[in-house]
Structure formats: structure tokens, C-alpha cells
Design goal:
transmembrane, mainly alpha, single chain, Four Helix Bundle (Hemerythrin (Met), subunit A)
Length: 175
């Protein structure tokens, strides 16, 4: 009889242990346990990547001979403009330079392509070359634009604005 009581207690103990494990696992499944990433930091990383793609596309476009060869550059410029605009909105318009020269490049390429596939003029090639040279100076400040806490570093934003205004002057953009 004593043996049966011991066995029943052992069985009840095992049953309670299994029930507690099931409740614990159910609780863990119900609550989210993944860490959330900082969306602004991730958007900044995407924007930086798009700026690097644009820089590479500008270098590639230097050897372009006609307007149809500028499609990749136009897409890269649009992507960089779009992501930078979203980053500026997420950080607050007054906190980050708007960089209108990115959209100016897209507009210029579209204007050149309106007439169809035609050879680029020497002036257009020169403009692309000059844009590429000035734009290469924006990458370093852009890499260091945000602090570790996700705040805009004003000195780097000022450098970005200075270079951006040089680029905007190429297209006579006054923003």
C-alpha cells in the first residue's frame, strides 16, 4: 500500500512538472521575445547604401555616349533621392539637409532623354563628370551623418549641405 502511495505521488509530481513546462512554453510563445531594430537607423543604412550605388553609377556614366545609357544612373539617382527624402522626413525636416540636387539629376536625365536615344553633348558629359566629382565629396560626411544614438551630427549635415548646394548650383536649383 505504501508503495502504491509513493508511486501515485511520483506520478502526480511528474504530471505537475509536465503541466508547468507546458504552461511556461505557452507563455513564451505568446509574448514576443525578439528585439526590435531601430527603424531610423535601418533607413539611414539603406539611404547610405543608395548613395554609394549612385556614386558608382556616376562613375559608370562617365563613359556614356548616348542618353539611353543613362537609365541605370537615373534609377540610382531616383532611389537615392527617394530614400534620402524618407530619411529626412523620419528625422524631421529641419534636422537633415533635403538634398534637392538628387532630384535635379533625375530631372536633367529625363529632360535629356525626352528626345529619345541621341548622343550626349559635350556640355552634358561635362555636367555629369563635374556632378560625379562633387558628389564623391558627399559620401564621407554621409557615412558619419548619424551618431550612435541616432541623432544627426550637425557638422556633418553642414558639410553635406555645402556639397549639396554646389551640386544644386549645377542645375540652378535654389532650395
Amino acid at each position: 500500500m505504501k508503495r502504491k502511495k509513493t508511486r501515485d505521488l511520483l506520478f502526480m509530481g511528474m504530471l505537475m512538472l509536465l503541466l508547468m513546462i507546458l504552461v511556461y512554453q505557452g507563455f513564451r510563445m505568446m509574448r514576443p521575445h525578439t528585439e526590435r531594430a531601430d527603424a531610423e537607423q535601418m533607413l539611414y543604412e539603406v539611404s547610405l547604401f543608395q548613395m554609394q550605388v549612385l556614386s558608382t553609377s556616376l562613375i559608370d556614366a562617365a563613359s556614356s555616349e548616348n542618353t539611353s545609357e543613362l537609365n541605370a544612373l537615373k534609377l540610382a539617382a531616383y532611389s537615392a533621392s527617394y530614400t534620402h527624402d524618407r530619411l529626412a522626413k523620419s528625422l524631421g525636416r529641419g534636422n537633415l539637409y533635403a538634398f534637392p540636387a538628387l532630384g535635379g539629376l533625375v530631372d536633367a536625365i529625363q529632360t535629356w532623354q525626352i528626345g529619345g536615344n541621341r548622343p550626349l553633348s559635350e556640355g552634358e558629359k561635362g555636367l555629369l563628370h563635374e556632378y560625379s566629382e562633387i558628389f564623391s565629396g558627399t559620401l564621407e560626411p554621409y557615412r558619419q551623418l548619424l551618431s550612435g544614438s541616432g541623432q544627426v551630427i550637425s557638422s556633418k549635415n553642414d558639410e553635406l549641405e555645402k556639397e549639396g548646394k554646389k551640386l544644386a548650383a549645377l542645375f540652378n536649383i535654389s532650395r
